[in-house]
Amino acid sequence: MELRRQYKIALILYTQGLDYDDRIRKEILSIQNIYDYVSFKIFAVEPSNRNEDGVTSYGIPYHIPYLKSREKYQSASHTLLKALEFYRSIRKELKNFDAIWCADVETFLFVLLSNRKPILWDHHELPEIFIKKRYMRVLYKFMERKCKIIIHANQPRLDYMNQIGLVSDINKHFVLRNYPEFNEIDMEYDDTYHRFEHWLGESRCVYLQGLMGPKRADVESIGAVLSVPNLKAVVVGRISNERMSFFETVFSKEQLKERIFFAGLQKQLKTPQYIRKCVTSLIFYKNTNINNWLCEPNRLFQNLNNGNPVVVGNNPPMKELVDKYAIGVCADTDGGDQEVIVESINEVLSRLDEIKKNIQVNKERWLWWSQKDILYKIIEKLFT
User: Fold this and answer.
1) Which of 83, 155, 374, 380 would you label with 335, given CA atoms 20 to 30 Å apart?
2) Can you name the residues that pair with 282 across neighbouring β-strands?
3) How far, in Å, CA of 312 to CA of 153, rounded?
4) What pLDDT, in 10s, does the model give residues 41-75?
């Protein structure tokens, strides 16, 4: 792209926390690394409703607007009204930017209402809300025409969108997979990690991240670990009080305390600290909806990048990868069969050396910067 002037991109985001949104961080920093005349500002909604301007831990300015509607209405209700207030609160400032980057499906109102600006719509998930009903499909195709670029998280998801007729112009659709960055780890170890290390001792450990309820086979995953003698697990990520209480009804408190360590929500750069203490990771997404079935989570690649074998469900994207490169075991279940998960764990443990060698040979395939050419094409298309 010929250098003419500075280009400013407004990135619209709903997030649990700016420092926890790894994909956004990688996209912004890698693009600014390639093009030093492209800058970003994030406009975000976080769980805490407040008016705040600041700079992220990775150096990007942000604005979080206070929304009256979020105080007036309960969480997860009146979402369209809240989104409209979000749009109106920053609409004037968006005029100062050269392009609008809409992160994930929830930002669709910005795609719908923004005019005279190049729009990039980054689908972190499949836009299921626009798939089930005919009139919503018509609306999606209208928004597709407005977008200059639409990004998908993996090829199976783009293929699915194409198969059901939601892709009118394939040339504006790109696949950008959520690969990790090489050897990316926070070298400062906090009290939670030191407690985990002391608790673990010399035991073998399984890495569990994102156990967000039944769809992620949370009970089956924990139950499988507890069914393998002398095996422990660390759970990274938020667990609701209700779900924790449920665990305590299914398993004894003593079992959980002795063999399952709940590390809580961790920043992306701290998760490798825990991965590197583990011998395998369980990654399951039950076939409850198309997003789950066609998942390809960042933690799959992050485990591989840190040399950790994986046990995955039989979801097409994960199964294809694991079977092709022999970097773990694909269980013959989507996560609903605990006995099959136990068998798969035992198989991984019996083949650790072999699998680790395969990971070592292939892991550079799944690095973020292997997609540098795609990032070039995305930015050049956005501004030409």
Assistant:
1) 155
2) 311
3) 18
4) 999 999 999 999 999 999 999 999 999 999 999 98
Host H or E run for residue 113: helix 108-113
Q: Which amino acid is at 90?
A: I
For the chain, the average pLDDT equals: 94
pLDDT at 182 exceeding the cut of 80: no
In the 8-state DSSP scheme, what is residue 264?
E
Rounded to two decimals, what is the model's pTM? 0.84
Which residues, including other chains, have CB under 8 Å from residue 82's CB and lie 6 or more apart? 67, 69, 70, 73
Please name the residue ranges forming H helices in 238-297.
241-250, 253-259, 271-275, 290-293
Q: Which residue has the tokens 């005919």?
A: 134
Locate 293 and state its tokens.
């079935």
- Both tokens of 193, joined, read 């990690």
Give the pair of three-digit tokens for residue 257. Answer: 């305390």
User: What is the rounded average pLDDT of the residues 151-155?
Assistant: 95
Rounded-to-integer distance, Cα 288 and Cα 290, Å: 7
Query: Is residue 287 pLDDT above 70, yes or no?
Result: yes
Question: Is residue 229 classed exposed, middle or buried when 0-12, 13-18 and 19+ CB atoms within 10 A define those classes?
Answer: exposed
* Residue 141's pLDDT band (cuts 50, 70, 90): very high
50 burial type by CB count under 10 A (0-12 exposed, 13-18 middle, 19+ buried): exposed
| pLDDT mean over 24-48 | 95
CA dihedral 355, 360, 365, 370 (to 10 degrees): 150
| 183 pLDDT tier (thresholds 50, 70, 90) | low
Q: Cite the beta strand spans of the chain per DSSP E.
A: 7-14, 38-45, 52-55, 61-64, 99-103, 119-123, 149-152, 173-175, 204-209, 231-236, 260-264, 280-283, 310-312, 328-330
The string over 295-316, giving b where at least 16 C-beta atoms fall within 10 Å of a residue's C-beta and e elsewhere, is bbbbbbbbbbbbebbbbbbbbe
Q: Taking Cα atoms as reference points, which of 56, 168, 172, 64 lies closest to residue 123?
A: 172
Q: Is 358 helix (H, G, I), strand (E, B) or coil?
A: helix
For 306-316, what is each residue's pLDDT tens digit?
Answer: 999 999 999 99
Within 8 A by CB and 6+ apart from 312, the residues are 283, 284, 300, 318, 319, 322, 328, 329, 330, 331
- Four-residue CA torsion sign, 306, 308, 312, 315: positive
* Residue for token pair 């199964």: 319
